[in-house]
Write a structure and sequence with these properties.
The complex is a heterodimer of chains A (108) and B (123). Chain A contains no helices and ten strands. Chain A is globular and about 35 Å long. Chain A is mainly β. Chain A starts with a strand and ends with a strand. Chain B is 0% helix and 48% strand. The chains are: A mainly beta (108), B mainly beta (123). Chains A and B meet through strand 5 of A and strand 5, strand 9 and strand 10 of B.
Chain lengths: 108, 123
């Protein structure tokens, strides 16, 4: 089973700042089958990034994903108030499909 | 538009079973697979299993093997997740989620999610 470790656990930033979230895998994620999801309180997760760097429909270009192998990054430039949420990475290249423990992005 | 609509909240006793449904609309169901993901209160996401709506293939997380069954009814575009021998630590919100995985579970992220079903296990 591939274990995903996200850091930091909580990130406190102000609107307008840049956020960098990390996701590290215990073994290589094949073909960059790595996704990021955004979850707000009381809501289902929402697909944000797939294939490590492709942005899903409905998200602006201030969101970007990068990385390959075992190290992946989600970057949000110029944070907007609606961006404060919990972000999960997930690998879907090898069953069981595992999620990271999440990074909570909170307003400073 | 694509929608996955799940059944309502459930309260169960330890040792009982629960069956949660997920009805798809707005797309051709047998071109996709459905996964089940759960989230315990205040915790992260945990993948439980997947079914191909196309041919009924399933793939379950080892942790749930023997306790979970995922089925699909193509006539009603509804997928079901049954979890047996419930324990208190099965208390969670259970989500269904769609992926383009049609034959095998891998290679596609989960692009649409149901609204979630709270299952509470309490004596």
């Amino acid at each position: 089973e591939i274990v995903l470790t996200q850091s930091p656990g909580t990130l406190s930033l102000s609107p307008g700042e840049r956020a960098t979230l990390s996701c590290r895998a215990s073994q290589s994620v094949g073909s960059s089958y790595l996704a990021w999801y955004q979850q707000k309180p009381g809501q289902a997760p929402r697909l944000l990034i797939y294939g490590a760097s492709s942005r899903a429909t409905g998200f602006p270009d201030r969101f970007s994903g990068s990385g390959s192998g075992t190290d992946f990054t989600l970057t949000i430039t110029r944070l907007e108030p609606e961006d404060f949420a919990v972000y999960y990475c997930q690998q879907y290249g090898s069953s069981p499909f595992t999620f990271g423990q999440g990074t909570k992005l909170e307003i400073k | 538009q694509v929608q996955l609509v799940q059944s309502g909240a459930e309260v169960k006793k330890p040792g009982a079973s629960v069956k949660v449904s997920c009805k798809a609309s707005g797309y051709t169901p047998n071109s996709y697979g459905i996964s089940w993901v759960r989230q315990a209160p205040g915790q992260g996401l945990e993948w439980m299993g997947w079914i191909s709506v196309y041919n009924g293939n399933t793939d379950y997380a080892q942790k749930f093997q023997g306790r979970i069954t995922v089925t699909t009814d193509t006539s009603t575009s509804t997928t079901y997740m049954e979890l047996r021998s419930l324990r208190s630590d099965d208390t969670a919100v259970y989500y269904c989620a769609r992926s383009l995985a049609r034959i095998v579970a891998v290679a596609y992220a989960f692009d649409y999610w149901g609204q979630g079903t709270l299952v509470t296990v309490s004596p």
